[in-house]
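Practice problem: predict the structure.
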Amino acid sequence: MFVEIESVKLAGSQWDQWIEEFNGSVFLTQAWLQGIANEERKPVYLRFHEKGKTVALLSGLLRPVGAGPHQQLFCYSGISSSDPTSELLTHCKKQLLDYAVKNQIARIILKSYDSFNFLPAPQKPFVEFERAECIIDLSCSQEQLIKGFTKNVRRNARRTEGFGAIFNVGYSDALINKLFELTQETLEVRTSKGYGAYRILTMPFMDKDEIAKLVKAQSAHLFYIEHEGEVVSMQFAVQVGKRAYGILMGTTAKGYEIAAPSMLFMQIALWLQREGCKAYNVGGVPLGSANDGVKRFKKDLGAIETYSSEETTLFLIKPLTKLNFFLRLRNRIDSINMPWRLKKLIYRMLDLILKGREHY
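Answer:
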C-alpha cells in the first residue's frame, strides 16, 4: 500500500460533502473550522490518496506553539475513511508525520470528538489516550427513536410539558447571553450538591465569540425549554450535514425541578431527525466509576457508548525535540495516582521547563 498526502484548496462546500461521504466527524467540516479560525488559527485540509483515489481525509488548525516561531497541527477528530482498516490508518499516519516534518510542524494533536468509527492503529511517536462518547442514532423511525428513551425519561418529558413548558430553537445574541447564565447556574447547582468544580468551556478554542460566529452562520443551534416566560434549560449544538454534537448545556434550579433536561434532549433528537440528521452526539463520558451517573443518564436517552482514542505526538523537530523527556514525564505523571499537592508541584516544575510549548 502506497498512500500519499496533499493539502487541498477548497471551493464552496466541496470539503463538507467529502466529509459526509466518508462518515467523518462534524468537527472535520469546513463549516466548523471556519467558525473557530482566527488570525492565529488557520484551517488546513488534507487528502490521503492511493493511485489517485481518495482513501482518507483529515482537517484541523495550524497554530503557534506557545510564543515561539513553531507551529502545531491541532485536529478535533482523527483521520476519516469510508473504508477504514488499521493498515490504511497506519499508512496515513506515517504520511502525516512526514508532512509535519517537511512543513516544520512541531507537534500533531488528534482529538477524538464525534469519532464514532474508531479503529486502533498504533504508530510511533503517537501516544494514545482512551475516551468515550454517547451517540443517539437518528436513522431509525420516529417511533423507534422515542422508544429508545427510557420510560423514566419519557415520563419526565411529559411531566415538563404538563407544567406548560415549550421547546424552541433560536439564534439571537440574547439567547447566547442566556446560555452563559444557565451554564454558570448549573455549575453552582452541581457544586452545591457535592460535585466537584469544573470548567464550563472545555472544547479547545471555544469561547463566546466563536459560539456567536457559529450560531450566526447557523452551523449551530440554541435549543431551549421555556417555562412561564423564562428559559430554564438550553443546549448549544453544532450541526453540519447529517451529524450533530451537543457542546454546552445549562439548566436553572427551576428547570431541574420540572425535569426540563429530559424534555430538551428528547425534543432536540426529534427536531434533528426531522431535519434529516442521522446522528446526535450528546457528548463525552469521562472514564471511571465516579462518572457512572453521567453515563447512565446519557444511556437513558437511548445513546450508544462509543470508544475512541485521542492521539498526540511528542515534539517532532529540533530544537524542541530536546524537551521530549519532560513531555514524556508529564504524560506519565498524568496517569499516576498520587496526592494532588505533589502532582501540582511537579507540574509547576515542568511548566518552568516546557513554558507552555506543549499546550494547545
